[in-house]
Amino acid sequence: MSNRGAFLFHRIAMLAPSFVVAMFLGAPVFAQQKPMVIEPNLSASGAIKAITVINKSGSYILNRNIVDNRAGFDGVAVTASNVTIDLEGFTLSSTLSTTGNGFNATGQSNVVIRNGIITGFGGAAIIVGNSGSVSAITATLNGSGISCGIGCLASGNVIQGNTGLGLNFADNTSGYVGNILQGNNNGGAQISSGTSLNQNVCNGTAC
């Protein structure tokens, strides 16, 4: 090998590791965002009355049962859009009839609530705004069941024994599928507005 060839080979050998390091340093790093845990905040005060306030978009999980026995307080207030909440099978409950709502996401959009039990609240079990989704929720013995804005979906919920309506939608752009409703609204109408997507049962009959 000529002196010039040996020099070029040596330069390439020296540059190659630097190039590889630069590639890795410049490459984007992808990591799955971990859900944030819902914890009660007993110091919540001011205009928003709730034992827990979620004010940032993201994914949240409940990691234990929460009891709300504060008159006039919601269990969880959601004040941001694009929020997903998974109750992980846990219960949000109250034994005081003068509490507010279980989950209150009034005015927010793209809020998803799923997989748990909400019981005993003086207000609604769940209120979500437009384009919301509520699934796999058992809502019992609340002031009302699930209330939703436009373009919502309620699926696979069990809604029983609530004082008011079981499902209450802003209009027919919302849909409901695979829900069981029993004994809400003192045995009267179980659902207001919305469009049935089949497999719903109201007081023992298809609805």
What does it look like?
By secondary structure, the protein is mainly beta. The protein has one domain (36-206). The chain is 12% helix and 39% strand. The chain contains 1 helix and 21 strands. The protein has one helix at 3-26; strands at residues 36-38, 50-54, 58-62, 66-67, 74-78, 83-86, 91-93, 103-105, 111-119, 124-128, 133-140, 144-148, 153-155, 158-160, 167-169, 175-177, 180-182, 191-192, 195-196, 201-202, 205-206. Strands 1, 3, 4, 6, 7, 9, 11, 13, 14, 16, 17, 19, 20 and 21 form a 14-stranded mixed β-sheet that branches. A hairpin with a 2-residue loop joins strand 20 (201-202) and strand 21. The longest helix is centred in the first third of the chain and has 24 residues, at 3-26. The protein is globular. The termini are far apart.
What is the element layout, followed by pairings?
Elements: H1 3-26, E1 36-38, E2 50-54, E3 58-62, E4 66-67, E5 74-78, E6 83-86, E7 91-93, E8 103-105, E9 111-119, E10 124-128, E11 133-140, E12 144-148, E13 153-155, E14 158-160, E15 167-169, E16 175-177, E17 180-182, E18 191-192, E19 195-196, E20 201-202, E21 205-206
Parallel strand pairs: 1-3, 2-5, 3-6, 4-7, 5-8, 6-9, 7-9, 8-10, 9-11, 10-12, 11-13, 11-14, 12-15, 13-16, 14-17, 15-18, 16-19, 17-20
Antiparallel strand pairs: 20-21
